[in-house]
């Protein structure tokens, strides 16, 4: 534990979010909790947290629950992730336009990142190569240039520094590595840095 605390001092994370305190029963068992016990806590506390967050979002957006047609939720550590009917009814004008997208498979990386189910929970596979791999795929030559040259964009938007970027904050070295590879400044990824510093590695805490 001392080693973990020492490492935490150099992560750049200022605060972390948690649904419980050190007094939570799950944190004081004389054995590791089973995946079933973890799931029960997730369905009880995770759902309550999601409901609270959604109500807060509705309040801030000045919307009523009846204004929402679809709910998409994602989790990294539980199978309770309903996302039926993704796509919307098409009756209203879209809020955002998808100008382009790209999906790539990176060769020889299947052993660098994984999430294996185990009777006692989930076992993460995360090699030290991940930050370098992420940065290498975001370097200027690797960027999907057609998307930056979309006819829907103003002519002044032609380089990575002309945009704000949202990057999964899987770690400080991933953020700084991608930043250098794309020749941008921290302000271009300020939302990702803010999330990382206030909440830590942002994996399963997603609710759209």
TrEMBL record:
Per the record, the GO terms for biological process are: polyketide biosynthetic process
Q: Keywords assigned by UniProt?
A: Transferase
The text of the family note is: Belongs to the thiolase-like superfamily. Chalcone/stilbene synthases family.
Protein name, please? Answer: Chalcone/stilbene synthase C-terminal domain-containing protein
**A Pfam family per the record:** Chal_sti_synt_C
Single annotated GO MF: acyltransferase activity, transferring groups other than amino-acyl groups
Domain (Chalcone/stilbene synthase C-terminal) ranges = 160-201
UniProt cross-references to PANTHER family, sorted A to Z: HYDROXYMETHYLGLUTARYL-COA SYNTHASE, TYPE III POLYKETIDE SYNTHASE A
């Amino acid at each position: 534990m001392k080693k973990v605390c020492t490492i935490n001092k150099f992560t750049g994370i200022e605060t972390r979010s948690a649904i419980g305190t050190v007094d939570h029963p799950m944190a004081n068992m004389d054995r590791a909790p089973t995946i079933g016990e973890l799931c029960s806590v997730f369905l009880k506390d995770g759902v309550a947290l999601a409901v609270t967050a959604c109500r807060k979002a509705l309040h801030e957006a000045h919307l009523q629950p009846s204004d929402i047609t679809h709910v998409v939720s994602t989790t990294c550590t539980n199978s309770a992730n309903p996302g039926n009917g993704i796509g919307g009814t098409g009756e209203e004008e879209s809020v955002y336009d998808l100008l382009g997208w790209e999906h790539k498979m990176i060769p020889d990386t299947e052993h660098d990142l994984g999430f294996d189910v185990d009777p006692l929970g989930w076992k993460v596979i995360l090699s030290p190569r991940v930050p370098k791999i992420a940065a290498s795929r975001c370097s200027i030559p690797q960027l999907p240039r057609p998307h930056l040259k979309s006819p829907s964009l103003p002519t002044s938007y032609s380089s990575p520094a002309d945009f704000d970027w949202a990057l999964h904050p899987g770690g400080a070295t991933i953020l700084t590595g991608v930043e250098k590879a794309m020749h941008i400044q921290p302000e271009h990824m300020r939302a990702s840095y803010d999330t990382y510093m206030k909440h830590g590695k942002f994996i399963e805490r997603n609710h759209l």
